[in-house]
Amino acid sequence: MSPILFWIFSALMLGFGAATILNRNPVASALSLVVSFLGLAALFFGLDANFIGVIQILVYAGAVMVLFIFIIMLLDLKAEQRRQINIPALLGGVAIVVAFTAQLVTVIRSYKAGNEPFAAITPNLPDAHNIGMTLFANYNLPFQVIGVLILVASIGVVVLSQRELK
Amino acid sequence: MQYLPVLLQVIVAIGFAAAALIFSVLLGKSGRRNPTKDSPYECGMLPIGGPQPRFAVKFYIVAMLFILFDLEVVFMYPWAVAFRDFSLKFGGSTILWSMISFIGIVTVGYAYAIKKGVLNWGRQDVEKSN
Amino acid sequence: MNFIDLLKRIPEICKTPETLPLEGKKLILDFVTWLGSLVGIAVPPWVLTLVNILVVIVAIIAVFLIMFALMSVWERKILARAQNRYGPNRVGPWGLFQPVADGIKMLTKEDIVPRNADKVVHFIAPIVMLVPALILPVLLPYGRGMVAIDLSVGILFFFAVGAGSEVAIFLAGWSSRNKYSILGAMRAIAQMISYELPLVMSAVIVALVAGTLSPTGIVEAQGGYQFGFFPNWFVFTPWGFVACVLFYFSALAESNRSPFDLPEGESELVAGHLTEYSGFKYALFFMAEYVGMFAINGLLVTLFLGGYQAPLPFLTFIPSWCWFFIKLAFLAFSLVWVRATMPRFRIDQMMQFAWKFMLPMSFAALFSAAAWHYAGRGLLGWGISAVLVAIPYFALGYFCFTRHHSADNRRYLFSE
């Protein structure tokens, strides 16, 4: 991936990520989030991680986005828009972000692997195939645990929504 | 860069659509506006209430179940692609059984949702009388 | 190289129809090189790469837009014949220039934007709708060696891009500030996500058998003939037939075609998310829907109907790219036929069909395909997989539909 494209997509991702939290309108935030996800997917494609990039679009920009939209439509939009900015909470949030970023930078600086150059990436890996082979040869049990997680989530949705109906 | 054509295609498509729209704005006639014309189109009735009704919780359940099944399908793609080579390399049908157990686990949640009737979209009173 | 040589190559290219598009592309590249030599500069390689890509992109967009124009006449003609009418027959021979007249009319119409609407989003929505629809056709293989981009995850990429139209429909419905628009958009999204699962699942089944996600690889896996005359297309196996039918109906629902056109059911929702759209914005939505419909049916041809492979060995003299479009035309005709025949679903029937019938059926077809693979992909596997698909089909049919449709149990509301 050429550096120009990298900078364009990173800027897109970060810019719309900021727009997600700065927008007062929930629908506009959700749509900014989609563009942010698309920028992230483009970065994955640039790293030749085709499968992950596609999943990023399919699951996040497709499915999760639809869920957000449906939840926003369940709620009352106007109440959210009317709320005023809470100055102490804003300052607290900024402080936490600065502290977290500082911590992250310190850890990456002191971590040995963080200072080494990345290994070259083999272009055009059949990555879906490799993921399948590794997943089912080495990580079969965690895979089943994911199944249980999905089961718990689907039962949770049904139980919560049933309570709502009554 | 494998995806350069896709990027170019996006640019060409946006250019085509935007150019067509701008062209139509230039060519199109514009009549006088009046309050009736500006109001939302509701077949000649006066709009009652806000433009945005609140939606049933059914939509949310469908979206959530869609995400869960979508995640399942996402795991099935690497499985399907690796299926043949895995069977050849390790022999037997381990890969098939691990997917059967995975789907079996997820199907329990699916069966629960069906049993609780959250996927019935008809009117509740009619559904119950059946 | 001079201009006369380039002209002389045209009749030569036409002699071998199989490679006509590829040779035509080379000719255009040589023409660009010749233009460069005319000005007196050597054309840099990146310009040639760019021209190479652009030629393909423009050619595909042009072909699909022409198909869209023809389809809009063809559909009205077939519908008219199905209803004992003539259909459009005034503009040009057999009404063929009707799309031109429609286009001019759309371009010169007033573009009405409601005062309360979010004007920016209202303007962007048709563009967002058209962009994914125009990316989809680039991913399909049209003939031997004729694929614009052959991605290793091509099919998944197709579905991922196709999901973009959901966002566009929501944008259109939400920005209009109209009850019918937002209701139609929500219905459309609920329908599209419900039918996306069987759609994606039936592609998993093909990936399982072909062992690849690249469309070209899948078409190549369907090459050759059984017993010397019977094509190896996936639709001719029990699991493949089931997956193909599931894919066909999901594709109908994804492109909001009748009988799945409830989001724009005019008797309930005016025009759904398109209610507040007029003029060329409406035309762009229409165009995106049709191009998306062609693309998803092109994917059906690729996955199940052997892509560009000829149906019988002695028919291989017809070039491969012709076969792709012949099959696509056949599917397009069947879509119009379905529209002329079927009444519209009710929303509870539509949801029930997707979640209680198509989803379990797609899982059944998946295991049937796995059994077919383990039984050696021969006649034995054919029989086993047929049984494995038939049992769930009849069981689901019994549990899902029999009870609700028997006359004494079903109480009809007056509005049904």
Question: TL;DR of this structure?
Answer:
Chain B is mostly helical and 130 residues long.
Write the layout of secondary structure elements.
The complex is a heterotrimer of chains A (166), B (130) and C (416).
Chain A (H helix, E strand, L loop, with lengths): L2 H20 L3 H21 L3 H25 L2 H6 L4 H24 L16 H12 L1 H26 L1
Helix pairs in contact in A: 1-2, 2-3
Chain B lengths: L3 H24 L7 H4 L18 H34 L3 H22 L8 H6 L1
Helix pairs in contact in B: 3-4
Chain C lengths: L2 H13 L4 H20 L5 H38 L15 H11 L10 H17 L5 E3 L2 E2 L6 H9 L1 H12 L3 H32 L4 H7 L3 E2 L3 E2 L6 H17 L11 H4 L9 H25 L16 H22 L5 H28 L4 H27 L11
Report on this model:
- The complex is a heterotrimer of chains A (166), B (130) and C (416).
- With 166 residues, chain A is mainly alpha-helical.
- Helices cover 81% and strands 0% of the residues of chain A.
- Chain B is built from 5 helices and no strands.
- The longest helix of chain B has 34 residues.
- Chain B is flat, with a radius of gyration of 26 Å.
- The C terminus of chain B is likely disordered.
- Chain C is 68% helix and 2% strand.
- The longest helix of chain C is centred in the first third of the chain and has 38 residues.
- Chains in contact: A-B, A-C, B-C.
- Chains B and C meet through α1, α3 and α4 of B and α3, α4, α5, α8 and α12 of C.
Shape of chain C: globular
Structural class of chain B: mainly alpha
User: Could you spell the SSE succession of chain C in H and E letters?
Assistant: HHHHHEEHHHHEEHHHHHH
Number of helices of chain C: 15
So what's the overall shape of chain B?
Answer: flat
Q: From N to C, what is the helix and strand string of chain B? A: HHHHH
Number of beta strands of chain B: 0
Biggest interface goes to:
B-C, 70 and 78 residues
| Radius of gyration of chain C, CA atoms, in whole angstroms | 24 Å
First-residue to last-residue Cα separation of chain C: 73 Å
Question: Alpha-carbon distance between the termini of chain B?
Answer: 59 Å
Oligomer, anyone? heterotrimer
Q: What number is the mean pLDDT of chain B?
A: 78
Q: What class would the helix/strand composition of chain C place it in?
A: mainly alpha
Tell me the radius of gyration of chain B. Answer: 26 Å
pLDDT below 50 for ≥5 consecutive residues: which ranges of chain C? none
